[in-house]
Design a protein that fits this description.
Blueprint lengths: L2 H10 L2 E2 L4 H8 L9 H4 L1 H14 L3 E3 L7 H6 L6 H19 L4 E6 L11 H20 L4 E7 L2 H12 L6 E5 L10 H12 L5 E6 L2 H10 L8 E5 L5 E3 L2 E3 L5 H12 L3 E4 L7 H11 L30 H8 L3 E6 L8 H11 L6 E4 L11 H12 L3 E5 L6 H13 L4 E4 L21 H13 L15 E6 L6 H13 L4 E4 L6 H8 L9 E5 L5 H4 L5 H10 L3 H15 L6 E5 L9 H8 L2
Parallel strand pairs: 1-10, 2-3, 3-4, 4-5, 5-6, 6-7, 7-10, 11-12, 11-18, 12-13, 13-14, 14-15, 15-16, 16-17, 17-18
Antiparallel strand pairs: 8-9
Length: 606
């Protein structure tokens, strides 16, 4: 891409860049993955992130190469992959552009090396520009439209990097500094002078990314004096934080970054995006905020400040009886119920009352339109059961039947009605008509749903807006120990945990072999309390598609006595479960939930 073409684009309208590749990879990749090798080891995840940012409105996406210079890769003994990794990263970004069909700019990302090599030593002074030149040559040679030198914290290194890059290619360069000065008084004027100095290099744009965040970035931009080079800003929205085994998202909401973007455009900022903690939802808000805007000349040095936000409340912790039992390590027993197909719930309430009277039943979990057939809403039914019987419930929630905003609205009402536990599931696709699934909503996937439930507890809705008193649900998720690709299923479970899941419920199994193999992928212990499924089969027909061959043979040999064989297997699983699982949920016989009680009693006998 020619520099004059980029200058025309930046003058025409505010160009929105993507957010943080690293933050998104942290949420998607298995724990311990090397982000700098993601394009090599997890290319689909990188491609998906590019596409998510493009869909959100990014016009410029950066290659996943911030940490892929030779010195950085050599720290992990992967220096020999320098060319392969950088080449693959450009290919993935270009592929995302082709898939999207949009006029997207692909920027080769180059990060600093001053923290890796000693810039103040002769060896480092020579090696750093050589490494920048090598990476830039690969990115340019593989088809990047421009280069972004970002998060440099020493201006002397950035000056060296610009010179080195220009020695190997003629691509336009955007250069951005980071200023990690944490305590006031902040030297915004001195930091702005650094950008004034960089503008003398006649770059495509100069600016600030990462620290000091949205408000600090605006203060720096406000005090920049040069007017001939466009400005760029991609502040962080806060750092991802691990707390109690899960990732908490940063405090800057999408609406907050939208306000930042509008004001940045008023300060001649032609390139706006995000850094650490900024995800597709933030970029979508930024893109909507600056749509149709062109960078505006700065007017008389008027101060522009992002309005201060009140501190975010502490996340609400789950407080249900089930949460307390799991936290204490007490073995729990739930019984799964199907809601009625019509408006009458008398039979299910009678069954729930019977179950609630049993000392070993801790609650019931309630399916959400099983097999995608219309039934009573499980959130309402859960409230009804709790009010009438006092038995705790775990309603299932799915993104299949409602938008995320609509579902969150229902959940606020359910919380007010006493619901404290949820099981988040993808949900069976509908099978109606000639095009199964065509009427399903699926506004978000299961990972985004779990994250949204977690964010509710932190006081924010799915759009990043503050809500009133937040609900603190105990969030359950499903997993399949016998999945055809156990490693992929393990990764899915890790992502659910990372997004805020508190416990898990396994899909149906009839022995412990698959469970033990799956647990082995986590070092022998699952990453959160998990409940095993126990299903007392009643017939061979019921079992044909779901049980191992050995059990099928037993059921077939039993003939009319198949229910006895199924019950015995269920009792055995129940007795063995405390050695492996945090609890069980029992799938009651069809239309006879009370019939599960004798099985519980038999399993308790010594």
């Amino acid at each position: 891409m020619k520099a004059e073409d980029l200058r025309r684009r930046l003058a025409d309208h505010v160009v929105v860049t993507d957010g943080a590749m690293g933050s998104e990879l942290l949420q998607r990749l298995p724990e311990g993955s090397r982000l700098e090798l993601a394009v090599h080891e997890h290319p689909q995840a990188v491609l998906d992130i590019h596409l998510a940012y493009i869909e959100a409105g990014a016009e410029l996406i950066e290659t996943a190469t911030f940490g892929s210079s030779r010195p950085r890769l050599e720290r992990g003994r992967a220096g020999q992959l320098t060319e392969a990794v950088n080449a693959a990263a450009v290919k993935l970004a270009r592929e995302a552009r082709e898939i999207s069909g949009r006029d997207i700019l692909v920027a080769g990302s180059i990060g600093p090396l001053a923290g890796v090599l000693d810039l103040d030593e002769p060896g480092g002074l020579a090696a750093i520009p050589a490494a920048h030149a090598e990476q830039a040559a690969i990115l340019a040679g593989r088809g990047a439209d421009l280069l972004v030198l970002e998060t440099f914290f020493r201006v002397d290194e950035l000056l060296l990097a610009v010179e080195a890059v220009r020695g190997v290619c003629d691509l336009p360069i955007i250069a951005m500094m980071t200023f990690a000065h944490e305590r006031p008084p902040h030297p915004y004027r001195e930091q702005a002078e650094v950008l004034d100095r960089l503008a003398e290099l006649e770059l495509a744009a100069v600016g600030v990314n990462c620290a000091p965040g949205p408000m600090g970035a605006l203060e720096i931009l406000r005090q920049v004096r040069q007017e001939r080079v466009p400005l760029a800003a991609a502040p962080n929205s806060g750092m991802l934080v691990w707390r109690e085994g899960r990732i908490l998202m940063p405090p800057a909401t999408p609406s907050y970054l939208a306000r930042f973007a509008r004001q940045a455009a008023g300060l001649s900022c032609a390139v706006v995006g995000g850094c650490c903690g900024t995800g597709p939802e933030h970029i979508r808000a930024i893109a909507e905020a600056v749509r149709g805007l062109a960078p505006q000349p700065r007017s008389g040095g008027a101060s522009v400040v992002v309005e201060a936000r009140e501190p975010a409340p502490e996340p609400v912790r789950p407080s249900s009886a089930l949460a307390a039992k799991l936290a204490r390590g007490r073995f729990v027993r739930l019984v799964q119920l199907d809601p009625p197909k019509g408006t009458k719930a008398d039979a299910i309430l009678e069954a729930a009352a019977t179950l609630g009277a049993h000392p070993d039943v801790d609650g019931v979990d309630i399916n959400s339109n099983p097999l995608a057939r219309l039934r009573m809403d499980p959130l309402f039914l859960g409230q009804l059961i709790q009010q009438r019987t006092g038995l705790e419930t775990v309603p299932h929630v799915t993104p299949r039947d409602a938008s995320l905003m609509g579902l969150q609205s229902q959940l606020l009402g359910a919380w007010a009605g006493g619901i404290r536990n949820l099981l988040a599931v993808t949900g069976d696709p509908s099978q109606l008509g000639d095009y199964p699934g065509v009427h399903d909503v699926y506004h978000v996937d299961i990972f985004e749903l779990v994250r949204a439930l977690s964010r509710l507890a932190e006081g924010f809705d799915c759009a990043g807006n503050r809500i009133g008193d937040p609900p603190g649900f105990l969030i359950g998720v499903a997993f399949n120990p016998a999945a055809g690709d156990p490693a992929a299923e393990a990764d899915r479970l890790r992502r659910k945990v990372d997004n805020g899941a508190h416990f898990a419920m396994a899909q149906v199994g009839f022995d412990w072999e698959a469970w033990d193999r799956f647990a082995g992928l986590f070092g022998g212990e699952l990453p959160l309390p998990a409940l095993a499924a126990v299903w007392p089969l009643r017939s061979l027909k019921m079992a044909l598609r779901v049980v191992p061959e050995s059990l099928l043979a037993e059921l077939e040999a039993a003939g009319a006595d198949a229910a006895r064989v199924g019950g015995e297997r269920a009792v055995r699983l129940l007795r063995e479960a405390p050695q492996r699982a945090a609890g069980v949920y029992l799938i009651a016989p069809f239309k006879q939930p009370q019939a599960i009680v004798p099985l519980i009693d038999e399993a308790a006998e010594v």
